[in-house]
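Notebook entry, structure prediction.
Reason for the run: the old model in the group folder had no record of what sequence produced it. Starting over properly, with the input documented here first.
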Amino acid sequence: MIREEKLMNRKLQDKFTRFVKTLSSTLNKPEQKFLKACSFGILSSQSCIVRRTAHSLHEKVSSKKTQERLIYHLDKAELNEKISQTLLQKQCRKLKKGSLIIIDPSDVVKKYAKKMEGLSRVRDGNDGKWKTGYDALDIVGVNTKGDTVSILPIHSQLHSNTVEIDAMKNKLFDRIVDIIIHSNNRGTFVFDRGFDDKKVIKELHRHDASYIIRMKKNRDVYLRDKKLNIASVGKATKLRYRFRPKKGVTISAGITSISIPLNPHTLKNPTLAETKLVVAKIRSKRKDGTSRNGMFYLLCHNTNQSLLERDFVKYILESYRLRWKIEEVHRQVKTDFGWEDIQLQTYRRLQTMNTLLWVAISFLYNLDQWKYRLAKVFTNLMLEKKNKLSELNKFVYYKLASVIKYCFNKIRIEWAVFSLTPKFQNPFSISKEEIYENFKRK
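New structure, fully documented this time:
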């Protein structure tokens, strides 16, 4: 088994080298080495702190010299923009017609920091209180195939209200245009209630983008040329379809055609955009026997219009439910990689380190295609029980992070791409069915 671990370790290093090489087309040689070294260090140390990242590289020079080299590159003016744009282009090429593009703001809370540049007031998503820190605009792609869900980290950008001239919403519009261009306008944008904004909807319609937005209850829309509150439209909509996504939960839903005004303020003859509104009422039973009811409204446009009405409503509900995947990514980045422990004084260094963290998790999330191979070699890290392969169908990325840390933590980084001979290829060319058979034998 030790031999198979060494071979898999070598294969993972080779895959990492090839992944980073695809992001290095706009960088010079020192910048390419920095990109690889820093993202490798983040994966092996599971930390955004430069000292820990440098120590995990096991270089022949002192750890202090390694830190100085990393900080020198983190301080470069245009490096962050080059890497983030290249990563965005690479990930957008993987988006398909049925992909979801989930956009959600996050926060990096630095409650006790005082000397970090660009500190501003941010709303902590955990308790809703205002604290010191930085906002972040995060974008994640989701591809589905049957019951399998794969996640593509696309973009992350720190934002400080005290440093930046542009508002965060302008950056959002720029990224929407970038994604539309590089993905050939494939995929559907998915937003939570925070993006129920006329400017956002107008920008999406201007580029003929598909979208799903959860609406606020106080939004005014037009139903048959009559201006109504969205809650009133919900009451007038027949909830003729019923779904049971899991035990104890029932969703009654219906759909209606509406028009939404795109002007920033009230006009007598506003510009209207025709779209669809899915109205849903959810009933769930609690453990104490009581029930909970709630209404929600999903604005959707240009999304799988070839489906029958019932299938279309089901698709919209399932797509919005997958929006939670970006929350799981946020949780892992904060728990596994100590996103909020980041310690850099200048705003430029903070932005570049944040982008390099996104590069590291992009490689990590790209390994979900290898989860069965890795479960065969690193069974104790990937599975709680040997034969329970159903665990790999859940959010498997915590386990993948443990495998990468185990493999990368005690080795020096390899700069060359390995050319594997046929005798090295056998441990990796294994099908899902063969893995099941191997576990049964054990």
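Summary: The longest helix spans residues 2-21.
The old model has been moved to the deprecated folder.
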